[in-house]
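Hi W.,

Here's what went into the run:
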Amino acid sequence: MTDWTRASAAQMADALAAGEVTSVELVQAHLDRIAAVDADVHAFLHIDAEGALETARAVDADRAAGVELPRLAGVPIGIKDVLVTQGLPTTAGSRILEGWIPPYDATVTRKVREARMPILGKTNMDEFAMGSSTEHSGYGPTSNPWDLERIPGGSGGGSAAALAAFEAPLTIGSDTGGSIRQPASVTGTVGVKPTYGGVSRFGAIALASSLDQLGPCGRTVMDTALLHEVMGGHDPMDATSLDEPVPGCVDAALEGARMDLSGVRIGVVKELSGAEGGFQDGVKQRFEESLDRLRGMGAEIVEVSCPSFEYALAAYYVILPSEASSNLAKFDSVRFGLRVEKATVEKTMLATRAAGFGDEVKRRIILGTYALSAGYYDAYYGSAQKVRTLVQRDFAAAFEQCDVLVSPTTPTTPFKIGERIDDPLAMYLNDIATIPANLAGIPGMSLPSGVAPEDGLPAGFQILAPAHEDARLYRVGAALERSLTEDWGGPLSAQAPELEVAK
Amino acid sequence: MSSLDRSDVARLAALARIDMSDADLDRLSGQLAVIVDAVAKVAEVAGEDVPATSHPIPMSNVHRPDEVRPSLDRDAALAAAPEAEEGRFRVPQILGEEA
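Here's what came out:
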């Protein structure tokens, strides 16, 4: 009997279309898998078994009746808890929103429903997407399916772990400084941060509005491409949404899978290539091997320098807290969420926010309040915005010499839960290679480059492209993925140790 | 630029409307000082000739047609409120007794 949870989303879609499986069977297989492993993995905050099965039954009935259906109709999906879902609890990983049922759907939620994809549930995340390990979730950490004592990355650790544990074939993430790409890297899965504005953020609980972008997560480049095309496109409800066609992600992935990269110029960012400290040996090794594979497919590899990246992390940790401190002001105990009742409304707000927010959220709100306060604004926020210009100029100069840029996604393989929780700066360094893309608004992908020889844990390969050129990620990513998986005999996720299954 | 001290954190927490116990201040102040010192390096390269970037993809004057369309139903908007009364959000007393 086929274990459908191990199939790719594209294979599931094809099997559904061919009548080899029903959506109800697919959904039930994933619900069974969730029941078997999620007590250990804790990828999900909420499971909507009945809702997912209901969608599946309707899709199966329509298919039987000959109704024309979207490509991914009937393929189940998990949604990061940052997106509002009408009728399903939405918390963004925070206790301050515990039990909140949104009265409307995010645009991306609506698109997923219109694509007729059964929603399995909501995936765990660092509170308000602040973190790189999912340890800052108000509901407890998610574990990495490769080693349950290790972090699955963050903030979208739930979305990545659900894929690596075969609890869902596709999930949705959000990436403010790497929250899609870094979890993909440490779980051996694929994640894409589209160009800023490429996917509507209406109904996404905002962290830092000039950096946030929603994107697709999957186990293969093609699956991610299919979901990207479902999510993308202009939305009048989001003023920052790009009014341009959705990039041709699927066609680009098909082209890449032909493994011909002649004429493609690939730039290795000197500052992010591991020559500097902090990059683990096995991560560097897998990165270099991947470069050799790209070269072997005809790509030209050039080295480029982006000197301002040295300041990107600092700029990010000024801009993000500043915007977050403003965005999170809405959690005031008045319209939704927690209220800790005191004698006056002000005391109620003070007590509610003290009780409802975790430490990392408090740190960042205070940092942002400081950076925006009179007398400090120019030195911090103003300077950080200038660094942003310098980072953009570095990218512009680099993209004159090459079509895409590459680096390891994150400096190390996944670390142990608890290892960096009390050292915020060490935690922030996880995002050193992913943050520049958010500052510049450009698209980025992480895909597996293999396991590091020294610890057997996944390492990630990052590809960056100029704004609006998301398709290039899929072409280069699909080429590298095919080269690697032909040698591995399947996706890297198949190499993860089997999880113990609850009876 | 001077680093943050405990009294700064207490003042900022009050501005951000977050109650902080002594234990909270002990725990967070040191961490925040380290972070503030680390991010202060943004000022090192920000010359006067460098323009600021607020949004990564330049856009201006984004409009959509000014058309009447359905909006959230009042009861739906109030449904998740901690307290509501007569079709409105209800909050505790706004003005305190003490100065």
